[in-house]
Amino acid sequence: MRTVFQEQFIAFETIVRREIARFTRIWTQTLLPPVITQSLSFVIFGKFIGSQVGHINGVSYMAFIVPGLVMMSVINSAFTNVVSSFFSVKFQRSIEEVLVSPTTHVAIIAGYVMGGVIRGILVGSIVFVVSIFFTHPVIHNLAIIIIFIILTSLVFSLAGLVNAIFAKKFDDVSIFPTFVLTPLTYLGGVFYSIHSLPGVWQQFSLFNPILYMVNGFRYGFYGFSDVSVGGSILFLVALVGILLYANLYLMKKGTGIKS
Amino acid sequence: MKAIEIKNLTKTYANGIQALKRIDLEVEQGDFFALLGANGAGKTTVIGILTDLVNKTAGEVKVFGHDIDKDFSVAKKFIGVVPQEINLNIFERAIDILVTQAGYYGIPCNEALPRAEELLKRLGLWEKRFGSPRTYSGGMKRRLMIARALIHEPKMLFLDEPTAGVDVEIRHEMWEYLRERNKAGLTILLTTHYLEEVEQMCRNAAIIKGGEIIMRDSVRKLLTFMDKEVYVVSVQHVKDITTLSQYKPVVVDDTTLEIEMSRKETLHDFVARLAQTGMVLTDIRPKGHRLEKLFLEVLNK
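The joint structure predicted for all components is written out below.
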């Protein structure tokens, strides 16, 4: 006889296993594209343009953009994994398989989010390994790197789930990444330090949550950041809390999945 | 303890449509129960509420004594559901669909695999276990959904129009299997358009119309509400039918008549009367299904 906790853990594990099986089965769509895209970024931005930019805070431009490009891959992979997987089961109505079962909303959210976190970290790690062929990134504080990669993938997995819950058609799945996520990522300090921006744009950049993720992550490698690292961690933890609550509320209400 | 106890169940959808109007319904353990009604009568809404796919507006629902408002997660373990629409994940293999479903009920892989094997073999899908539902025929998809609904060994099975679009042979195989499971103690609640099946399989039935239960009784008793029966009579050659006027005969063709008989009359008397006309009887059978007629009569009231 299993306890309720054991049963819920098996349900959670089932969702995670299913998610891993899904994104590894279609690895040419999930794991390969970010590696190719970021390799091109390393070549174009790092090698060709970077050689003319020089150093930022004492590190080469190529080394400077590595954490940002890794984080970009983490953000996109975590978000896309959850939004496409959850929307796909919703669209096919196979979401009903889990809804009719005793699996709690917490286990459902945790399972899908864990799938996104694993894919985010996996893709981020692959991109980081690829970056070693172009530069020699150093590690200033491994704990900070791990904290930021986990918190960022959590934030975007949870955000992907909110998007999937509200999405009614396939177009709704791509609106947020195209019109919100990509611009915020490019303007989030991946390719530059905000100190190089004019005053008003510096202030404006501070409203971009991705700035805190990229800079905190970069701090883990080189020990410098445009923003407070402790403050960034608190901000990300708060964001995780808000998004988790939003998902729990939407699930309980049955938004997009129950009538 | 009842398998299902529903009291004052009401559902009003966001668009204002009142799908259920304070319905009361009880289903005994071990029953093979039919919920009948036209499209949009509220059948699927009842099943949706019982399986947590539809939020109820008001009322009480108990599944094997467990109130769904208090401990739905316990109640859900008693229920397996085969929905009306195919809702299989077309990107997964059949065997994985079953093992995953078991996982949602807290059953680990090592326990789920032998159960999946047994169900897939019994339902004739074992050879195709590594295939995806994309490659399955309509009947195979239905059988896979039955296997999925039974993987956690529920005590109650909801079948929402399970044989829609399934060919006759497969339909009969499915019914044979479900009858076998019902005999083994599984309570079954069925909605279907094939009233012939209800007549043959179900012990009790309720008719739902416009979100209200308008009749609930044993199938046998429901049939007694029918006071007339139409028979198709085949003879070698149709002759003068005036002496059969009490049976309201209608000549269909040279060898076929249709007659109407009340419950007070007997086939024996009719056959004797037919013999007096000089017609040679070759066959006699009821026209259509009695329950279907009752159903239409009740719905048209």
